[in-house]
Design a protein that fits this description.
three-stranded antiparallel sheet, 51 residues, alpha+beta
């Protein structure tokens, strides 16, 4: 199953959602987001599951 994520500036096709969420929860992703000015408490994902 492929999951398509829509966000400002792009669309991601994610094959493994568990790995994707683990990446987003990682210290590396948090540091990169903070450097880019991402506000983690206000970001939202619109998710579409495609069987």
């Amino acid at each position: 199953m492929t999951t398509v994520l829509f966000f400002t500036g792009g669309i991601l096709e994610v094959e493994d959602m568990d790995k994707f969420w683990a990446l987003l929860a990682s210290d590396v992703a948090r540091k990169a987001g903070e450097e880019d000015g991402l506000k983690f408490d206000t970001d939202h994902f619109l998710v579409e599951f495609t069987p």
